[in-house]
């Protein structure tokens, strides 16, 4: 077990990431190549463009992960790669790289589910974390509440019926004219600290649905209307806004964040009650995915779990946003119990046809 060394490859969205992790949880290397600059120029992820960026970055990212770990591919026990969910054009780049490497070096392959990787990485950072536990996964594309009963056994307690919270952060940032060279979430988190969270009255989503599902499309619309009615122009970057305009933007950022997170709080509280009926011994709520790197989110959820007498487990920010470590670790967990594919055939020579 402790001799396992697994390479993890992640290309499901806009980051090309790779990492090498040991069976005992030791992170030997971690490399992320971000497309944030590209995204800022085009205002979102365009699959074809993201695919090209992955193709350009993948060989070097993987090589660097191996180099920094002081290893060559032949020292690996297996290659783990994200196989979904995500943009298929992008996923394919990682999967092809994994197959090429595994084929050349006769290595088994572990196909990894992106959301499971976000969940399981908490067992790397918190070595005491045992099943069953709950997880709130909050990112740009997903908003999930799950009960993890065992490895591979997950009950979905709630999901978004439309947008995920990260998407709402990203759009709000764009409409407020924030600097998108990094993603919208951190920009809103920072601006919100200057604002008054009680100044704009947004209504909390799904008050009449007493379940654990989420909805962020309506809140997005409320934010867009509030921005329009205050004549805030996204074309004017916040750096050139006058002080009154800046205050107005900060107030919207803070008010949006308060309600967006209040929605998480309410759903988590209910989900803990639901989960206890199935697994009365639940002791932990894992919060992971890009939005889990937000300090306000962590602090608010911490009060919820305290009230319910359970513990919050939040991986460090670099392991909450998309990364190769979580893929390598999920690969290790599955490899250990025999869930992997045998080495693919070595690559055929280029002139085979
Ligand atoms: O997990 P992730 O890296 O990629 C997906 O699988 O989607 O999550 C990216 C999302 C983006 O929407 C980004 O704006 C959000 O996570 N995010 C944040 C913060 N850092 C990243 N949202 C709020 N506050 C943050 N500090
Ligand atoms: Zn993710």
From TrEMBL:
One of its GO terms (cellular component) is mitochondrion. The keyword 4Fe-4S does not apply. It catalyses: L-threonylcarbamoyladenylate + adenosine(37) in tRNA = N(6)-L-threonylcarbamoyladenosine(37) in tRNA + AMP + H(+). Residues 26-329 form the Gcp-like domain. Homodimer. Belongs to the KAE1 / TsaD family. This is Glycoprotease 1. It comes from Turnera subulata. The chain holds residues 67 to 419 of 462 of the full protein.
